Amino acid sequence: MDPIIQWVGGKKRLLNVLDLMLPNNYNTYFEPFLGGGALLYKLLPQNAKIYEININIYNLYINVKNNVSEIIETLHIYEQEYLNSENRKTYYLDKRTLYNSLDYSSLENGIKKTILLLFLNKTCFNAVYRENKKGGFNVPVGNMKNCKICNTEQLNNISNYLNNNNISIYNNDFTTFIESIKVNDFVYLDPPYYPLKNDSFVGYDKNGFNKEKHDELINILHILNEKKINFMLSNSNNTYFRDRLSMYNIYDVSIARTLNSNIADRKECICEILVTNYTLHKTQNINISQKIYSNLNKNDNVSVELKNKKHFLQSNNIDLKEINKCLYNFITLNKIKISINDKYVENNEYIITLLFN
Ligand SMILES: C[S@@+](CC[C@H](N)C(=O)[O-])C[C@H]1O[C@@H](n2cnc3c(N)ncnc32)[C@H](O)[C@@H]1O
Description:
It contains 10 helices and 14 strands.
């Protein structure tokens, strides 16, 4: 399932990579910085505890869980009004003003705020969620083309998922999850990133995620490790975290977008890091043609199908290149070795073993 809102720093484009790096099994899934919840909605765990400090986002999930029919009904009306409006920009700005003027003093207000948030997220510039220091939504109007604003099926699916599984949603600071997590649970943390400017802390994040919060987060990772609880952390490629988490596995994630299909012409940048306190050993079924396979040399690039998507693979490290509408979304992970079974099977299928070390 896709997330219901788009989020700055949302993990949608990295889902293939995150999926490869999950531990093989766990009991309860914890996500203390939910945002759009891209990974949660991909994994759809039966048992999950999710945390979001932003009241508007928390309220969105609670209302989609409890009042989805009302949301769909009114969002359809907004959709029609917006698409038929002579001045879509004015319509958008009126809805934004209304959204910012409402508080949570009644259930009715809360539901209305959720409907407006969904409307604004679909019609605003770049379809992202961003607030000013006072918590007001401040994104300008988007390109005002015809667009689908009310995705009934998706809203119903997410509502059903939240209702029919054991999912607890908290409007708490992330630190509180440590009280209920147990051995064999798993936690994925995607916090506001550590600032990169000069690699030093330069000020306060609008969410109040200041240096003390980053230190608290690092401390919690050590506690999790002591308790033998598996964690995976996303963060910016910063030396502050790298130095303090050097005892764990740190993977560089490089993402480059370019129209150039020639790998040599690409500029690779390490954009993010992923940190885990567990090692992985996962197998994936990959289709690979006999012709390519029999000629494969160490360090050769081969084109393979991985989960129905086309990727390029190197024989001593993995080099995922996802072809998406003529754009090459290029993701590289370090510290990964692969081994390919030397048996060719009739249906052209090989087992590729990804070794994370
Ligand atoms: C990088 S975003 C998460 C994006 C998410 N992984 C996705 O796929 O959309 C970080 C989230 O943490 C939330 N947050 C910030 N400070 C927090 C805190 N102290 N406790 C819990 N959540 C917090 C922010 O509101 C934001 O939604």
